[in-house]
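Hey, quick one: can you model this chain's 3D structure?
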Amino acid sequence: MPLTLVTGPANAEKARVVLDGYRAALKRGEAPILVVPTFADVERYRMELAGGGVVFGTQVVRFGWLIDEAARRAGVRGRPLVGLARERVAAAAVATTKLSALAPSAATAGFTGALLGLIDELEQRRVTPQRLTQALRAWADDDERRRAYADEVSALYSAYRRTLERLRRSDRPLYAAAALDALREQPAAWGGTPVFVYGFDDLTAIEVDAVQTLAQIGARITLSLAFEPGRLAFSGRATTFAQLHGPDVEHVVLKPREEHYAPAARRALHQLERGLFELGEGTLFDPDPVDPGDAVTLLQGGGERAELELVAAEALRLIRDEHVPAEEIAVVARNPAAVAALVAEVFESFGVPVAVERRVAEVLDTLPALEVCHRPSPSSSRSSHSFASRQSRLTVSDETWSTSAVSSTLKPPKNRNSIIRLFRSSIFANASKARSRATTSTVGSGDVTSSSCSVTRCASPPRLRYPRRRA
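Sure thing. Here's the predicted structure for all 471 residues.
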C-alpha cells in the first residue's frame, strides 16, 4: 500500500516533510493535491507555497473537496443534502416515528441535531439500520426499558434513511461512501494523482476510509499525524494510527525539536510539550521543574467572567506596556459560540479591541417538499486549527472554557512570542480526546460559511445547522 505516514510531536517539522514532498511532486508534473483541515489553512498554505515560488498548478483543498473529486472521477452523480435540507429530513423522521421513551427528548430543540450527530457516526462506519437494530436488540436483551429505547433509536434511523430513499437523495456520509466504493470498483479512475494530507490532529472514520481507499487503489498518499506511541497526550489518536499503520506502510518518525520556539521561551515551552500529562502514577508535581520565566503564566479566577477579566487585563498590559500588537494576541476557547458574547463584553470593558471568530450560515439547499415543522438547532462544529503569530508568553488558566482566536493572522511565523491560552482543569483530564478536524462542507455543497466577524461585538449566530471541526 503506497502510504507514507509521518508522525511526531508538535514542532517536529512534519510540515517540512509533507510540503517538500508536495513541491517535488509538482516539479515532476504530477498535479498533486494537498489536503488541509480548514478554509483558513487553504489560504495559508497557498500563500506559503507561493512564497516559495510555487504559484501555478497548486491544489490546496479540504477533505470534502477531495471526496467530491473522487466522486467526479468515479462517475458518482448527484448532490448530497446538507445543512437545513438534511435537518428537515431528520425532522420528518422524528415527526413520523411513534416515540414513547424518547418523547421528552424529542420535544427539545437540540434533538434533531443530536440525532444527526448519531446518524453521522453510524453512516461513516457504514452501519445500516438493520445492523443497528440487531445490535441494539442484543444489547437490550430481556430488559423492557432498554428494549423500548433501542427500538425507538432504530426506528428513527430507519425512518431517516427511508425518507432519503423516497427523495432519491443521499447525505454527505452516504455520498462519500458511494464515491469511495466506486473508486474501489474502478481503481484506474483516480489516475496517478498523489495526495498529501497535513494539519489534522485526528481523522474521522470517513477520512480514514478515504486515505485507505486511495492507498489501496495505488494512489501515493503522504499523511502527517501528531502522534508518539505511549504518550498519554496522543492516546486519543492511537486508534487512527493503528488503522493506518501496517507492514506495507512507510513510517517516517520525526524526533522532538525545540528550535522553533522563540529563544526566550524555548526551554519552558519545550518542557511543557514534552511533559504534559506524563507525570508518573502518584506523582503530583514534576520532580525536576523548569523555571518558566515569563513564558508561562498561570491565571486563576473564580468563574468564567472573573477569569476573562484576568485575561483581558493581561492583554491590556501586553498592548500598553510591552507594545504587543493586538492582532498578535489570541485567546483560545474550546467552544467559541458559548463564550463569544462574554469575551466581547469583558474585553470591551477593558478597552481592548477584539475580533470574535464566528460561523455564519446561508441556506442554499432546502426541501420545500417536506411539509414538516422543524426546530433548527446548531450542531457541534469541528474545531479548527488556530495559529498564533507568536508564542514566547503562554498564559495558562486552570479554570477555563476554551478555543477561538480573538485576533489572528493568516500566515504566522514559525517562531512565536505572544499567545494567551486558557485551559480548564477539566481539560487536562480529557485533553487527549480533544481533536482538531476539518470542516466537511465543500464547494457546491449547499452551505457557505464565513470564518470570522471582525467587529467589536457581533450579533448572535442564526440557529441553523452549521457545517461540521477538526488544532
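One thing worth noting: The radius of gyration is 23 Å.
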